[in-house]
Amino acid sequence: MHIPSTSRRLAISTCSFALALALAACSSGGSSTPSTSVSGASAAALTTGTATGDVASVTWYGGYRPVITLDPVGIADYPEETAIPNMCEPLVRVAPDYSLQPGLAAKFGYADDTHYVITVRQGVTFWDGTPMTAEDVAFSLRRNLDPRIASNYSGSFSAVEKIEATAADTVTVTLKQRSVAFTSALATLAGAVVAKAFAEKAGPGFGTPPVGVMCTGPFQFVSYDGAASLVMKKNPGYWDPAKAARAQNWTFVYPADPSALANGLASGGIDGALTLPSNVAASVQKSSAGTLYVGAEGSTPINVDLLFTSSTGHAGNADVRAGLSMALDRAGIAKAVFAGTADPLYKVAGPGTWGTAAAAYQPAYRAATAAPDLAKAKSLISGSGIGSTPLRFAFPAGDAESSQIATVVQQEAAGIGLTITLLGLPNQQYGALFVDPAARSAYDLILTKNYVELPEPLLLDQLLGGATGNMNFSGYRDAAVEDSIAKADRTADPVERARLVLEIEAKLAAALPAIPIVAPRALVFENKRLTGSTLTFSYMSSPWAAAVGGK
C-alpha cells in the first residue's frame, strides 16, 4: 500500500503504509551520481526461473531500513512487506501475474451483496503444531478494525460491519456493500493469519523482536536483533509441500551504508535484492556475481510523490500546490536521479496501476502529460500570498536518491519564487512520520514512495485522497470524491469502475493532496547461484522467498 504503505500499505500498501524511499546511493561500490543509463536483463518475465534444488542458506537485502514490527498489520512499508509475508501468509495467494488464488482460504467470494464468505483450509497448522481454525482467521481479520492496534490497512475495511466465525471452517464478513478494497486486502498482510492464542498472550509484545509472531508460512521466525539481521528457517510442516521453501535458512540484512549493499551484492555476501535502489543498480549492472533485471515503463505500481501534511496555511493553498507541480521537471528527474530506471509520472495512479481496463485510463493520462510551465507557475506563486515564507520539506537523509530529489525540488521551487527548507531525517525517524500525526506536524510536505500491492488505481486514489485513506495526511475531503469512491468500490465491472475512478482523479489533480513525480521501474538483482525470484511487485503480499533456490 504505501510507505508507511503500501499496504497501503500501498500500500498500496502503501503505499504505506509507512512509505519512504529505498536506499539509493553508492560510494565505494559506485558513484553517488548514477550513470546516464542503467541496463540489465529484461524483467518482462514474471520470475527469474524455476528453482530445481535446495540451498542451505540465503542472505537477502531487506529494505531501506530495519523492520519496525513483525506484526503483519502494524506497518505497511517495503521492509515489512518484503519479509513478513514469507512467515505470515495472507488468506488469498497472489501469483507473480497478480492473479488471486486459493491459499489459507480454500474458497472465497460473495454470497450476496453484503456477505463475503471464506472457507478456511483444513489441515493447516501454525509453527508450534496447533491447528489453524476459523476463529484464528476471524480474529486476525478483526485486528484491522481495532483502533488500539491501528492497522495500516484499516482504510480497506471501511465497508466492513462485522467478522464472525460462523462454522468450524467458515468465516463470514458482513459489509455495508461490496468492496473492491476489502476483497483486495485479503490478498495483502491485512489478510495474514496469526495464532489468536499466541497474539493474545503476547499482548503489546506481539511482533516485537523478543517475542516474534506465530503464523503458518513456509518460513518460520527464528530471531531478529531489531537492527541488522532478521532470521527465518524453513517450516518443515508447511501445509503445501509443492510450495515449500527451497532454502533451509534465510536472513534479511539491512546495511546502513548503501556502499555496503553494493559491495555485498557484488561480492556475493548478499544474494539478492528486490526494488533495488537505482544508484546501487548502476554499480552492479555489470557484476559477474549475478544478474540485474530491469523492468519497462509501468512494471511496478510504485510512485514517488510529494505529500502535503495540512489542509490549512500555505501548505493548503491550492495555488502553491499547483505552482510547485507545474515547476517540476519530471522527465529530468527520472533521467538524472534514477538513471532512466523511472518514468515521469503525471497522475498519482499511473500505468503501473492499470491492472484492468488500461485502455480506459490511457487517454486521460496522455492528456495530463505536460512539460514544466514556469511562467504560469511563477504567476500562481506570486498571487498565492506565500511570499518568502518557507515550506518545510522532510525526507529520509539516509537515502541519497531521496536527497537528490529533495534538492532538485528545492531548486525548481526557487526558480518560481517558492522557498523550501530541506529537513533530512534519519531513516527510522522518517518512518515514524507515517504512523504518528504529531511527528509530521512539524513539516509541510514529505517525500514518499507510495504503492499499492495490487495494480488497481482505485486503491491508490483512496489511499491518498479518500477520507479514510491511510496516506491522506493533509485531511483532504471532498463529498463528490467520497461518493465516487464508494460507487467505484462496489463496482465489479472494470470499465465502469474506471469511469468513476477518472472522476476521482480529476478532483485529485485539481486539489493535489499529493504531487506525483516519477514511477520507478522494477529493479531486481539475483546471485548467479540462485533462481526463482519474482520480478513483479507481487512479492509485497506473497511468500515469494520460498521459491528461491538452486538452479
Automatic annotation (TrEMBL):
What Gene3D superfamilies does the record point to? Dipeptide-binding Protein, Domain 1 (3.90.76.10), Dipeptide-binding Protein, Domain 3 (3.10.105.10), Periplasmic binding protein-like II (3.40.190.10)
Q: What UniProt keywords are attached to this protein's entry?
A: Signal
**Cross-referenced SUPFAM superfamilies:** Periplasmic binding protein-like II
Leader sequence segment: 1-24
Gene Ontology biological process terms, A to Z? peptide transport
Stored Pfam families: SBP_bac_5
Q: Where is the Solute-binding protein family domain?
A: 100-457
Q: Which GO terms of the cellular component aspect does the record hold?
A: ATP-binding cassette (ABC) transporter complex; periplasmic space
Would I find Signal among this entry's keywords? yes
Alphabetized InterPro entries for the sequence: Peptide/Ni-bd, SBP_5, SBP_5_dom
For molecular function, the Gene Ontology terms on record are: peptide transmembrane transporter activity
Q: Which domain of life, per UniProt?
A: Bacteria
Q: Which protein is depicted?
A: Peptide/nickel transport system substrate-binding protein
Show the taxonomic lineage: Bacteria, Bacillati, Actinomycetota, Actinomycetes, Micromonosporales
